[in-house]
Amino acid sequence: MHSDLVASRSADPRDSRESKNGGGPQLDAVSLAIIEQLQQDGRRPYAAIGKAVGLSEAAVRQRVQKLLDQGVMQIVAVTDPLTVGFRRQAMVGINVEGELDPVADALTAMSEVEYVVMTAGSFDLLVEIVCEDDDHLLDVISKRIRALPGVRSTESFVYLKLKKQTYMWGTR
After folding, report:
1. The pairing of beta strand 113-118 with beta strand 151-158
2. 121: left (phi > 0), else alpha (psi -120 to 50), else beta?
């Protein structure tokens, strides 16, 4: 199946795509196929990936290391927060006065913050927070986020039930 995917893309390494941010590393069809293999199973052996994409195990190992070094991808264990003691998740919309970057950088440094996204729309920033309980969430929002210079207002969206969490968007 995945060798068909690779075959459907140009095998010419010069046929590459820039990352979606407009200036990142160039990725050829084989690197994209390796990423897709690892998105399906981050523990898939390099030999199996090599067979699927037409490379040796050593070549796959080198490409994976390069992708990791370039920050193109990470290989991590994704957990269900509830099963590891985090009973409360929330998305927080934040409006900022002035520059967004200093606020976004301060939020990024907080261990409870999983995502920081600059947006266009009702909020300047959207932040996903994972906390141990409601008291912890309240503390993070009221004493740490709202205390940041430039934060004008926040609106919290507490998760009642997580129905889908996936990282399988492929390499479109």
Report:
1. unpaired
2. left
Reported in sequence order, the residue ranges of the chain that DSSP labels E, i.e. its strands, are: 88-96, 113-118, 125-131, 151-158
Backbone angles phi, psi at 136, to 5 degrees: -65, -45
Tell me if 116 sits within 8 A of 127, measured CB to CB: yes
Q: Is the pTM of this model over 0.85?
A: no
pLDDT at 12 over 60: no
Closest to 35 in 3D by CA, of 82, 2, 12 = 2
Paired tokens of 148: 């940041």
Q: What would the pLDDT profile of 39-68 be if each residue is shown by its tens digit?
A: 889 999 999 999 999 999 999 999 999 999
Half-sphere exposure for 70 (CA within 13 Å, toward CB): 15
pLDDT at 18 over 50: no
